[in-house]
Amino acid sequence: MTFNRNLKNIFLVVFTTLILSACSTAKKSGDMEGDVYTGKETVKYLAKGVPDRVFFATNKSSLTTASRATLRKQATYLRKNKKLNVTIEGHADERGTREYNLALGERRANAARDYLMTYGISGKRISVISYGKEKPVNPASSTLAWSQNRRSVTVKVN
Amino acid sequence: MKNFFLALTIYFISLNSLYALIEVDITRGNLDPLPIAVSPLHVDIKSDEQEGIKVKELGNNISSIIERNFKNTGLFNPLKKEAFVQKPDIAHLKPRFEDWRLIKAQALVTGKLLVKEGKLKVEFRLWDLTAAKEMTALAFTTTPSNWRRVAHIISDKIYERLTGEEGYFDTRIIYVSETGPKSQRVKKLAIMDQDGANTKYLTLGNELVLTPRFNPTNQMVTYLSYFRNMPRVYLLDIETGMQEVVGNFPGMTFAPRFSPDGRKIIMSFAEDGNSDIYTMDLETRVVERITNHSSIDTSPSFSPDGKYIAFNSDRSGLQQLYVMRSDGSNVKRITFGKGIYGTPVWSPRGDLIAFTKMRKGRFYIGVMRTDGSGERLLTENYYQEAPSWSPNGRVLVFYRETKAGSKGEGFSATLWSIDITGYNERKLSTKTDASDPSWSSLLSK
After folding, report:
1. A44-101, pLDDT tens digit by residue?
2. pTM attached to this predicted model
3. Distance (Å) of CA A101 to CA A94, A105, B220, B237, B250
4. Closest CA to B92 of B111, B115, B71, B73
């Protein structure tokens, strides 16, 4: 099992390097890469150096390289704190229909959950909830606000 | 809560359905609304006083509601009362047609009412001024507190007689009332008469509620509630206030609607990042899975004959509209235009599907035939979605949100309606900000 997981890690590292080089041409403006938020303005921390959230591209639920790095830190933190359970809240921006956004938030939260599980965190410790577009962290109607709102947030339950 | 449903005794005085010269064509945008005179109803001097109701003004108030209903259709032009040439009681007996024609009226509504022994007796007549004939007449008895509904029922009867189609005035709209700043909205279920009167709140705002929808056969409602922070589809009886969760699903259920016979709820169930469509029979509690696809399948809506389901899926990569048989077979994509599509809602007439379209950062409400052909975009805005049909399939109600400033200021959510002709776009008056409207069927059907 341990060997397998290590192998997977190596594979992921190779994979992310490939993605990085592919993305190096993507436009970077301020705190956004493409339309994925990369800044720290709204981010809180589960513990020192462990960001609580990851961000997504419009209509997407795939994890970026930075998101995977964040989630690996969360996994390490959760492995150290074995009694801690979390809820992952999935969110969408306001530029979609309400019902589709509920489904999209659920898909995003599960993308984060699945990744934590591949790093050995039991699914029993992670519940998910989607809020769709109902709980924006930034209420502005701007591309920056929307990128901050397309997120999944890991919240401690106990 | 029995008084929601009034005991109506309706009897016909006469019905001259033949030889009418005037009629209103509602199949095209009406740029030439029919001039109609709505005379105040004559209040019988033998009327009793009635607590809480200004009996003397009842005739005026009922005619004002009828006028407003007609004006809001965009199909009629109610004339100013100052120009009226005959007293209400005399006009009701027999109008001097030539005098009413002088003020350019083509149709005339007259009536009288009596409040006696705790009952309200109303009769009205609709006159064709061009043909100098009575077109229809009706009388009924109800409790005085129902006087607003009396005005709506009269409006429906006149609308039906003049357009040949069922009216939609004696109806209600359920919606989500919104208050508070944009990032911390308090949402409650609210219900009001179609004209904005009689607003009532059905939940307290303790938990997030979304997407209420009427049962087309009665006054039950299904909606999404985050009660105990578990987003689930609920069923609400608005007569008794009883509510219950629909089914026993281990995850989020959402996007509920009733089947046209009112016996099933169709909805999405999300599990492990995948949303599929399910139905639950409300009597047998049998749950059926309708779609089984790794994409998001949501916003299902039955055709009025119950044989088909329109829904929203991103199986092609982005949100598009699909139609399938009600057992989930024969899935066909129906939208191929530029942009992405959501919230398909089948017309109660069965001929059209209303939808939300998103393209280049703008939002549209539109209609198309059920095979996806004949797309017509009715209205464009910064953000709008979630059309709901009037029971006669002529008008759509939907909600609109404004662009907010950097602190969320300037944000609003409001209800709007538009004819499927694309004419007569109109803001509905609500006590608070509002979203997710659903139009009821006719109450007195």
Report:
1. 999 999 999 999 999 999 999 999 999 999 999 999 999 999 999 999 999 999 999 9
2. 0.91
3. 8, 6, 26, 27, 20
4. B111
Indicate the domain borders of chain B: 2-163, 172-439
CB-nearest partner of A139 from B182, B270, B275:
B182
Question: Is pLDDT of B178 > 90?
Answer: yes
Name the DSSP letter for residue B50.
B
Q: How many of the other CB atoms lie within 10 Å of CB of B434?
A: 25
Each residue's pLDDT tens digit, B270-310? 999 999 999 999 999 999 999 999 999 999 999 999 999 99
Between CA B330 and CA A149 the distance in angstroms is 37
Q: Which of the residues B274, B275, B294, B314 would you substitute to probe the A interface, choosing the one with the greatest number of A C-beta atoms within 10 Å?
A: B275
Copy the structure tokens of residue A43.
């981010």
Say if the Cβ atoms of A99 and B231 lie within 8 Å: no
Largest pairwise CA distance in chain B: 73
CATH, domain range B172-439: 2.120.10.30
B394, B341 in Cβ contact below 8 A?
Answer: no
Going from N- to C-terminal start, the domains of chain A cover: 27-156
E strand intervals along B62-163: 76-78, 107-116, 119-128, 133-142
d(CA B137, CA B109): 10
Distance CA B130, CA B324 (A): 50
Cα B267 to Cα B287: distance, rounded to the nearest angstrom? 11
Residue with tokens 């409790």: B143
Say whether the ipTM exceeds 0.85. Answer: yes
In whole angstroms, give the CA distance from residue B396 to residue B383.
16
As a whole number of angstroms, the distance between CA B303 and CA B344 comes to: 11
Please say whether the beta carbons of A152 and A91 come within 8 A. Answer: yes
What is the DSSP annotation of A23-63? HTTS-EETTEETTEE---TT--EEETTEESEEE--TT--PP
CB B23 within 8 A of CB B162: yes
Q: How far is A21 from chain B (nearest CA, A)?
A: 24
Average pLDDT for B225-241: 95
Is A27-156 in CATH node 3.30.1330.60? Answer: yes
B2-163 to CATH, choices 3.40.980.10, 3.40.50.10070, 3.40.800.20, 3.30.365.10: 3.40.50.10070
For residue B376, pLDDT beyond 50? yes
In this complex, the residue of A100, A106, A111 whose CB is nearest that of residue B342 is A100
